[in-house]
From TrEMBL, chain A:
Gene3D superfamilies: 3.40.50.970, TPP-binding domain. GO terms for molecular function: acetolactate synthase activity; flavin adenine dinucleotide binding; magnesium ion binding; thiamine pyrophosphate binding. Keywords: Amino-acid biosynthesis, Branched-chain amino acid biosynthesis, FAD, Flavoprotein, Magnesium, Metal-binding, Thiamine pyrophosphate, Transferase. Its cofactor is thiamine diphosphate; Mg(2+). PROSITE patterns: TPP_ENZYMES. This is Acetolactate synthase. Its EC number is 2.2.1.6. One of its GO terms (cellular component) is acetolactate synthase complex.
From TrEMBL, chain B:
Keywords: Amino-acid biosynthesis, Branched-chain amino acid biosynthesis, Transferase. The lineage of its organism: Bacteria, Pseudomonadati, Thermodesulfobacteriota, Thermodesulfobacteria, Thermodesulfobacteriales. It holds the Pfam family ALS_ss_C. Gene3D superfamilies: 3.30.70.260, ACT-like. Chain A, domain 2. This is Acetolactate synthase small subunit. The keyword Chaperone does not apply. CDD domains: ACT_AHAS. GO terms for biological process: isoleucine biosynthetic process; L-valine biosynthetic process. GO terms for cellular component: cytosol. It comes from Thermosulfurimonas marina. Its EC number is 2.2.1.6. Pathway: Amino-acid biosynthesis; L-isoleucine biosynthesis; L-isoleucine from 2-oxobutanoate: step 1/4; Amino-acid biosynthesis; L-valine biosynthesis; L-valine from pyruvate: step 1/4. Dimer of large and small chains. It catalyses: 2 pyruvate + H(+) = (2S)-2-acetolactate + CO2.
Length: 568, 165
């Protein structure tokens, strides 16, 4: 069997249904093999960054490993932003890159780049395959490493002669890497300690992070929260890990979190953090973060524990299994619900006061369309789908992302696809393409800004080619809004380089690609335009002209305590 | 929290890129490597690496966890935290040895149990092994005589076995 045949065979055995890629000289042999393999669908993107984000969006929405295939040199380097994005958010992606023949490596050959060297700090692991016979074993290991433990991107660099060489195909059914043994089961004594703290606290908050979604622990979180009557807040990556419309939900916390979530965390005496890594956008000034709280931290990656905040009860393990164990104790002890309710009664009264004092709010008045109004309308129109998980929303990065996080209620896991850790502009649209490929029957909407959408707008051709009915809703304010907001608040309105002098006519642009283009410039146009888009069966771009100087509030200035919110 | 030298003993898969991954982990996070020694173990698929670094407890905890997170890393032990350990480093020192100082250099070698491994009319090259403190002492004493060149290996370390099991 040739190396290229082995690669495709390995992909089949790993259950890969779709690959996002872009061919080139160093991967022609693999593409030749794909030509003969109709069972693997190949999506031809227009830029390799798009391929990496699409594979990522596919992985986030399906829970499977996303696969991306590109050529050597520039093909490989173009994926780096996508790889770093997946790495920061712990998304399982396998990136296959072509490489010059082994004997030319290190010679500055045409389209040669040391991609394993370049991606070492932003992959979970990477491989340079030196011998054809190693291909099945290495690809097996790559998928295994990507999807187990704390998931992440794994890159496999494939020299051209390795693809062309011949060897016997040997597929290792079982995979055991002696140096890589993630811990899934939590230490029972630590779980007991966690339970005891829950029993003795009076002001608890559950903090749900992205780990809840990747380990599929949302049902367990919900059961625990309901049985014990605990308030729940979520990080950006955790949205959907607990139903946003649930009465015990406090919404998102952190820099643009709700007033009540931040106040609850700041005044809590116990935080149960599940699969969250205490990013600086969540903690604000670390010294002032939850000063009175004991912290229980469940995470599969021991590195995340004790990294940013001191932890009283570390629980290293899979979020789902850890919560299962905790629930076992809860059921064994069988403390009546009434007692839990009584224990947190005053705490809930306080939270209700905070909720009433500063709810998330905005005013839709005058001639300008408020972006929050657009998101609320979208939620209204798609509420049923949101509750049943039939809609997937991706976002770009910036104000559009934060308004979405604040005003859309994510009830189901894997329904928000957003670049959290890296904050990658240009992520949302290709990720939406990946999500739609993984869920042909679902409604996929990308909420964009006029800045972000232009970073990977060429992928409209990809979506058209695949017949994907993705809806892109552009909240167009003519600014790089989030930077403008910072300049307004902290740089005395010196609006340096945040206003585009040229913005394309998005409606015409959509039409140029053969898509449907719609526009709303007045508040009363929002609902009909959204309806028309949601009912459309093809790629649709909606250009919504919003109030140009609207900000995202509440806001905690960077480096300040989360109680120092600007509310406006 | 005070900064302290820590000697880490790391077992890692003997694969290309493994060392770069470890070194990259340090440079990418702004941690410093004071010394680093690598060689194959009895099992040729594993390499043993002795790494000396400085930091407070939190930083060292992070370093160890980050090392363990690397897919290639099999085992990490903070030798400094595991009770007593033996630590050795070797240096080759080329020292000026003219007529009036030749005897003095040889005497020094004798006291510190160094070996002369190369002789020329104007120099001795001596081999010295021992804990870092001993190497430092030899270097300080030879400096006034005139050191032309020094090459040091970096530290290797091993836990002492318990004497009363």
């Amino acid at each position: 069997m040739t190396g290229a045949q082995m690669i495709v065979e390995a992909l089949k055995r790993e259950g890969v249904e779709v690959i996002f890629g872009y061919p080139g000289g160093a991967v022609i042999d693999i593409y030749d093999e794909l030509y003969r393999t109709p069972e693997i669908k190949h999506v031809l993107v227009r830029h390799e960054q798009g391929a990496a984000h699409a594979a990522d969006g596919y992985a986030r929405s399906t829970g499977k490993v996303g696969v991306c295939l590109v050529t050597s040199g520039p093909g490989a380097t173009n994926t780096v932003t996508g790889i770093a994005t997946a790495y920061m958010d712990s998304i399982p992606v396998v990136i296959l890159t072509g490489q010059v023949p082994t004997k030319l490596i290190g010679n500055d050959a045409f389209q040669e780049v040391d991609i394993t060297g370049i991606t070492r700090p932003c992959t979970k692991h990477n491989f340079l395959v030196k011998r054809t016979e190693d291909l099945p074993r290495i690809l097996r290991a790559a998928f295994h490493i990507a999807r187990t433990g704390r998931p992440g991107p794994v890159l496999v660099d494939l020299p051209k002669d390795v693809q062309q060489g011949k060897a016997e195909f040997y597929w290792p059914e079982e995979i055991r890497l002696r140096s890589y043994q993630p811990v899934y089961d939590p230490h029972p004594r630590q779980v007991e300690k966690a339970y005891r703290l829950l029993e003795s606290c009076t002001r608890p908050v559950v903090l749900v992070g992205g780990g809840v979604i990747s380990s599929g622990a949302h049902e367990e979180v919900r059961e625990l929260a309901e049985r014990l009557h605990l308030p729940v807040t979520m990080t950006l990556m955790g949205l959907g890990g607990f139903p946003g419309s649930h009465p015990q939900s406090l919404g998102m916390l952190g820099m643009h979190g709700t007033y009540y979530a931040n106040m609850a965390v700041a005044n809590s005496d116990l935080i149960l953090a599940v699969g969250a890594r205490f990013d600086d956008r969540v903690t604000g000034k670390v010294d002032a973060f939850a000063p009175m709280a004991k912290i229980i931290h469940i995470d599969i990656d021991p590195t995340s524990i004790q990294k940013n905040v001191r932890v009283d009860v570390p629980i290293v393990g899979d979020c789902k299994r850890s919560l299962e164990k905790l629930l076992e104790i809860v059921k064994e002890v069988a403390r009546p619900e009434k007692i839990w309710r009584e224990q947190f009664k005053e705490w809930w009264e306080q939270i209700e006061i905070w909720k009433k004092r500063y709810p998330l709010s905005y005013k839709q008045e005058g001639e300008y369309i408020k972006p929050q109004f657009v998101i609320e309308k979208l939620y209204e129109l798609t509420r049923d789908k949101a509750q049943s998980g039939e809609i997937i929303i991706s976002t770009e990065v910036g104000q559009n992302q934060m308004w979405t996080a604040q005003f859309y209620k994510f009830d189901r896991p894997r329904t928000l696809i957003t670049s959290g850790g890296l904050g990658t502009m240009g992520f949302g649209f290709p990720a939406a393409i990946g999500a739609q490929m993984g869920h042909p029957g679902k409604l996929v909407v990308d909420i964009a800004g006029d800045g972000s959408i232009q970073m990977n707008i060429q992928e409209m051709a990809t979506a058209m080619e695949q017949g994907l009915p993705v809806k892109v809703i552009i909240l167009n304010n003519g600014y790089l809004g989030m930077v403008r907001q910072w300049q307004e608040l902290f740089y005395e309105r010196r609006y340096s380089a945040v206003k585009f002098q040229v913005i394309p006519d998005f409606v015409k642009l959509a039409e140029a690609y053969g898509a449907l283009g719609l526009r709303a410039t007045r508040p009363e146009e929002v609902e009909p335009v959204l309806k028309q888009a949601l009912e459309s069966d093809r790629l649709t771009l909606v250009d919504i002209h919003i109030a140009p100087e609207e900000g995202v509030f509440p806001m905690v200035p960077a480096g300040r305590a989360t109680t120092e919110m600007i509310l406006v | 929290m005070s900064e302290r030298k820590h000697t880490l003993s790391v077992l890692v898969e003997n694969t290309p890129g493994a060392l770069a991954r470890i070194a990259g982990l340090f440079s990418g996070r702004g941690f410093n490597i004071d010394s680093l020694c690598v060689a194959e173990t009895l099992d040729p698929t594993l390499s043993h690496l002795t790494l000396v670094t400085t930091g407070d407890d939190l930083i060292i905890e992070q370093i160890i966890k980050q090392l363990r997170r690397l897919v290639d890393v099999y085992k990490v032990v903070d030798v400094t935290e595991e009770g007593e350990f033996v630590e050795r480093e070797m240096a080759l020192i080329k020292v000026r040895a003219e007529k009036e100082t030749r005897a003095e250099v040889l005497r020094m070698c004798d006291i510190f149990r160094c070996k002369v491994v190369d002789v020329s009319p104007r120099t001795y090259t001596i081999e010295v092994t021992g804990p870092q403190s001993k190497l430092q002492a030899v270097i300080e004493l030879l400096k006034p005589i005139g050191i032309k060149e020094i090459v040091r290996t970096g530290v290797i370390a091993m836990r002492r076995e318990k004497k009363n099991p």
